[in-house]
Design brief:
The chain has 128 residues and is α/β, with parallel strands linked by helices. It has five helices and five strands, in the order E-H-E-H-E-H-E-H-E-H. A five-stranded parallel β-sheet has the order 2-1-3-4-5, with helices on both faces. Strand 3, helix 3 and strand 4 form a beta-alpha-beta unit.
Length: 128
């Protein structure tokens, strides 16, 4: 289903533009934040279908932000996908243990990005 809102929390402008461009081309609406704190506020306000979050953010990191999102009733059920340059098995295990629904490695594979977002949007539509 097209038109779902995807919140991107990413402090690198180039990565933000790329992800937004790919998702908007695929028919998604996007919103962006460059800090975890701003992203949490937008998530509570906008209630996106999916959140894509960089792990290495200024101030609060992505793992701490995820814990805050999971603690808020308004955002606890939103799928959150980690965006990271860390791709070792122990990193993936750590992301899962913290509670990320999935992860995407940087540099982002645009086809995988679109597929993961679609999969979580579809799953969320079925759950509601």
């Amino acid at each position: 289903m097209a038109g779902e809102l995807v919140l991107i929390i990413e402090d690198n402008d180039t990565n933000m533009r790329l992800v937004k461009k790919v998702l908007e081309f695929r028919g998604y609406r996007t919103s962006g934040a460059s800090t975890a704190e701003e992203g949490i506020a937008l998530a509570v306000e906008q209630r996106p279908s999916v959140i894509l979050m960089d792990l290495q953010l200024p101030g609060m990191d992505g793992a701490a932000a995820l814990l805050r999102l999971r603690a808020e009733p308004e955002t606890s059920g939103i799928p959150v996908l980690a965006l990271t340059a860390l791709a070792l098995k122990q990193d993936r295990d750590r992301f899962a243990a913290v509670g990320f629904d999935a992860y995407l490695t940087k540099p982002v594979d645009v086809n995988e990005l679109s597929e993961q977002v679609r999969r979580f949007c579809d799953r969320r539509t079925l759950d509601t």
